[in-house]
Specification:
This protein is α+β, with helices and mostly antiparallel strands and 417 residues long. It has three domains: 5-60 and 316-410, Severin (3-Layer(aba) Sandwich), CATH 3.40.20.10; 84-200, Severin; 207-313, Severin, CATH 3.40.20.10. The protein is 20% helix and 25% strand. The chain contains nine helices and 20 strands. It has a twelve-stranded mixed sheet with strand order 1-2-17-16-18-19-20-8-7-6-3-4. It has a five-stranded mixed sheet with strand order 12-11-13-14-15. Strand 18 and strand 19 (361-366) form a beta hairpin. It is globular.
């Protein structure tokens, strides 16, 4: 068993240049895909995950208990700072002030102070909800820690339904940007600071995915521009009410099929089946596509060699870890060294980290029977993985409660039931 103690994740810990990934994270051979553990069931021990574990462990020590942002701070069981209005449909925005949530008036939605932290909640139809933790680049560790703990209280109030996202200033997710159709504005300083001239964000409210590969086909989010395109791949342009699947003249049949499947999954799971799905051939771009992307330039060609390289990198793109505090520390034990994974590895009694930092995102899957401390630690553990693995600090974090998995998370598994 290789153990790698990690510095405390309390307030005094600040990320520096990441240490060498070996020995803490050697790259062992991928274990065989296990069987025999029912997917996401409430067994006290998950045989498949236990059998797959190859001994690679990340140990996250407890933070000091006298700080508000330690992952083990006890949350009050009554007197939630969020009122019943938080459960109403629609958008809600709170700013963290003196470690408490203060509702932001609707007239100032989209204005964010760089020295503050915010909670943005969207309660959608059919009990779908997304909770975003927006951390200003100049916000204090106390504010960031309080924001994380307040998110656990809000999650509890909403029955652990929301998918939780960590948003980084200047690299917000497109889902977050869609809540603010006129864009977001950054203000210098914090809530008590003088008003400074705004800096508008240019992030759009649409999304673009590239679908690439032959055997290990993967969809990755790309910049919303023609410069992201080539004629050898398929792309999904998500315009909200319309999903355009653009097929390059040189794309392969598997990419075309996978792109249509993913677009249909986005339509059915995120748009209640009401979005229009349209297949677009190279050279037949509709006006709405050109309106978003501008005039189409001459695009570079793709190649089979690039697909082969993508197959190899896609297979190594993600690592799956099991989270446990059974030893008194928050341990991450590697369950599978490369994707695709078997869904049977996910068991309801535990939380799991799917590290796709190479693709710009780290996921935490929360089993419905995982204990409170593991649930509270989800964001901290994801941030520690980002630091220890040397991923960009702009890496996005998505925390998924069991039963509310997104299509982009599911694509890392061989099949999903």
């Amino acid at each position: 068993m290789v153990s790698a103690p990690v510095p405390s994740v309390g307030p005094s810990h600040k990320a520096t240049s990441p240490p060498s990934l070996s020995p803490p994270f050697p790259a062992p051979e991928s274990p065989p895909t296990p069987s025999g553990c029912p997917a996401a069931v409430g067994a006290s021990v998950c045989p498949a995950a236990a059998a797959a574990s190859n001994g690679v462990r990340l140990s996250v020590s407890r933070g000091p208990s006298n700080h508000p942002d330690t992952m083990y701070t006890t949350l009050p069981t009554s007197g939630s700072p969020f009122g019943p209005a938080a459960a109403r449909p629609g958008l809600h925005v709170w700013r963290v002030e003196k470690l408490r949530p203060v509702e932001v008036p609707e007239r100032t939605w989209g204005v964010f102070f760089s020295g503050d932290a915010y909670l943005v909640l969207h309660n959608g139809p059919e009990e779908r909800a997304h909770l975003h933790l927006w951390m200003g680049r100049d916000s204090s560790q106390d504010e960031q820690g309080a924001c994380a703990l307040l998110s656990t209280q809000l999650n509890a109030l909403l029955g652990e339904r929301p998918v939780t996202h960590r948003e980084v200033q200047g690299n917000e997710s497109d889902l977050f940007m869609q809540y603010f159709p006129h864009g977001v504005t950054y203000q210098d300083g914090g809530v008590a600071s003088a008003f400074k001239p705004p800096r508008p964000s240019t992030s759009p409210g649409h999304r673009l995915y590239q679908v690439k590969g032959r055997r290990n086909i993967r969809a990755s989010e790309r910049d919303l521009a023609w410069s992201s395109f080539n004629t050898g791949d398929c792309f999904i342009l998500d315009l909200g009410e319309t999903l355009l699947v653009w097929c390059g003249s040189g794309c392969n049949a598997l990419e075309r099929s996978r792109a249509q499947e993913l677009a249909a999954a986005i339509r059915d799971s995120e748009r209640r089946g009401r979005a229009r799905l349209e297949i677009v051939a190279d050279g037949e771009e509709p006006p709405e596509m050109l309106q978003v992307l501008g005039p189409k330039p001459t695009l570079p060609e793709g190649s089979p060699e690039e697909d082969a390289v993508a197959d190899q990198s896609n297979a190594r793109a993600a690592v799956l870890y099991k989270v446990s505090d059974a030893t008194g520390h928050m341990d991450l034990t590697q369950v599978a060294a490369s994707s695709p994974f078997s869904q049977s590895l996910l068991c309801s009694d535990d939380c799991f980290v799917l590290d796709n930092g190479a693709g710009g995102k780290v996921y935490v899957w929360k089993g419905r029977k995982a204990n409170e401390q593991e649930r509270q630690a989800a964001l901290r553990v994801a941030e520690e993985v980002i630091t220890r693995m040397g991923h960009s600090p702009r890496t996005q974090v998505e925390i998924l409660p069991q039963g509310h998995e997104t299509p982009l998370f599911k694509q890392f598994f061989t099949s999903w039931k």
